[in-house]
């Protein structure tokens, strides 16, 4: 991964330099989880949706609820099948998004640290990338998400970043509203388990 990013970063200026007449959006690298300008498939529009929150609980307790790639009930989706090994690179999960439509996501990074902080990165499985959301909202033409929980220096407070890059045709889904909703649902579960003893900062999103 690091090697590929480096290779892309090194190769791009050469490509641009050797082809000055076709410097355009199509010369950008394809979209991925990496934070840089990128190129969506023809006809799709890039979107960048990032949700931030602070949860008044330890990263360990938040992780017990959310840091399992094969456990989708905390974000209300019905898991249909998995492949690979739990929380290991290349694992996939497939869930229903209504009618007979399904989405598959592939884990491309999973790290858990000694203090309970963790990060998961995954992408819409690219085979095939186009999935139409039932209800006519639009088509997912690739998306890349990062879910990260960082323990702060306050023992019972952790910051949450839930970030999505998407290539959409139309507007398939209100990801910002959904991510805010499932963070609030997680806060409710932690509260009911007596694990919410710190202060929350309610989730908010940037959407561009
Ligand atoms: C996406 O939005 C976040 C938050 O505003 C920003 O930090 C990041 O640079 C943006 N990424 C891209 C590729 O636009
Ligand atoms: C998840 O499901 C629960 C139980 O049906 C519901 O109360 C909650 O609003 C749902 N959350 C989201 C974000 O859809």
TrEMBL record:
It comes from the Eukaryota. Keywords: Signal. Residues 1-18 form the signal peptide. This is Uncharacterized protein.
